[in-house]
């Protein structure tokens, strides 16, 4: 008793969406959403110099794991991203911003 499959079952019946288009034919599907272009907040505010002492502004560009956020995520231009990374590094050295999320402050409290 041998069960053999037919070599070619023939064309497939159309599914619920209708017949499938030919391979390579037709136009590509449209994306579901368009990513909005991010605008540099420093350029909008016309900031000339990013101050390392402005901790409130710098914290917006640091993740909850105390890592610097990427340009893709924040939307900062390359010129301001370089100045921003320099300011964050200076603030870390002066202990204004922690190096790690579980960093203990000298007074016994935690870095907020």
TrEMBL record:
<dbReference type="GO" id="GO:0006412">
    <property type="term" value="P:translation"/>
</dbReference>
<protein>
    <submittedName>
        <fullName>30S ribosomal protein S18</fullName>
    </submittedName>
</protein>
<comment type="similarity">
    <text>Belongs to the bacterial ribosomal protein bS18 family.</text>
</comment>
<dbReference type="InterPro" id="IPR036870">
    <property type="entry name" value="Ribosomal_bS18_sf"/>
</dbReference>
<keyword id="KW-0687">Ribonucleoprotein</keyword>
<dbReference type="InterPro" id="IPR001648">
    <property type="entry name" value="Ribosomal_bS18"/>
</dbReference>
<feature type="compositionally biased region" description="Pro residues">
    <location>
        <begin position="8"/>
        <end position="19"/>
    </location>
</feature>
<keyword id="KW-0689">Ribosomal protein</keyword>
<dbReference type="GO" id="GO:0022627">
    <property type="term" value="C:cytosolic small ribosomal subunit"/>
</dbReference>
<feature type="region of interest" description="Disordered">
    <location>
        <begin position="1"/>
        <end position="30"/>
    </location>
</feature>
<dbReference type="GO" id="GO:0003735">
    <property type="term" value="F:structural constituent of ribosome"/>
</dbReference>
<dbReference type="Pfam" id="PF01084">
    <property type="entry name" value="Ribosomal_S18"/>
</dbReference>
<dbReference type="GO" id="GO:0070181">
    <property type="term" value="F:small ribosomal subunit rRNA binding"/>
</dbReference>
